[in-house]
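User: Let's play a game. I give you a shape written as tokens, and you guess the letters that built it. Ready? Here's round one.
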């Protein structure tokens, strides 16, 4: 299932995309209500504006990758965990055609959940694609101390963590625990494709 960001603000998509937006919005509203937070309090805790959060909960827009990351941090979830909660129960075998794909057109980021989170398992695999020149900054990890292994398959990826920039070419792998802001940038004139292995602390 493919999720696309609405860059026009006119709506969240059609068909399957719209259904996923509706489930995602409902889940965000459930998480907020379960903590007894008002829209204003959730906005303050996450750093996502009140109006954006309200529209996302009503499925009028899809949050960007950076906004969704902030909401995940506020609710103590990884992005994959949150997205898995609005998908069907994941099976042991995940066929390529069934791997959920989420796209942030505004930042040039496509995220395929190759091995989605599943109860009893601590790790997951994600395939990321950034278009040439794409630059995504996350102001916090969704879960402090999250273990990440970033393996570049094609192209060049620049990852900044703890104020240190790492240039990764095809075949290179960066291993780290994420405690603060991170930045993923495609510095070349060609797209980059990489695998992200995530392990909960």
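Assistant: Ready! My guess for every position:
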């Amino acid at each position: 299932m493919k999720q696309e960001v609405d860059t026009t603000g006119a709506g969240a998509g059609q068909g399957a995309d719209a259904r996923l937006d509706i489930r995602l919005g409902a889940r965000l509203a459930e998480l907020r209500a379960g903590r007894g937070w008002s829209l204003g309090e959730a906005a303050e805790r996450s750093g996502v504006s009140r109006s954006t959060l309200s529209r996302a909960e009503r499925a009028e827009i899809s949050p960007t990758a950076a906004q969704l990351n902030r909401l995940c941090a506020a609710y103590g979830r990884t992005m994959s965990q949150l997205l898995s909660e609005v998908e069907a129960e994941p099976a042991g075998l995940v066929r390529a055609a069934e791997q959920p794909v989420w796209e942030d057109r505004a930042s040039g980021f496509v995220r395929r959940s190759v091995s989605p989170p599943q109860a009893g398992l601590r790790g997951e695999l994600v395939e990321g694609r950034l278009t040439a020149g794409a630059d995504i900054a996350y102001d916090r990890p969704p879960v402090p101390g999250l273990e990440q292994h970033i393996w570049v398959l094609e192209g060049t990826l620049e990852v900044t963590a703890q104020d240190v920039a790492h240039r990764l070419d095809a075949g290179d792998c960066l291993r780290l625990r994420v405690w603060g802001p991170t930045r993923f940038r495609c510095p070349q004139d060609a797209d980059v494709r990489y695998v992200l292995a995530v392990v909960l602390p």
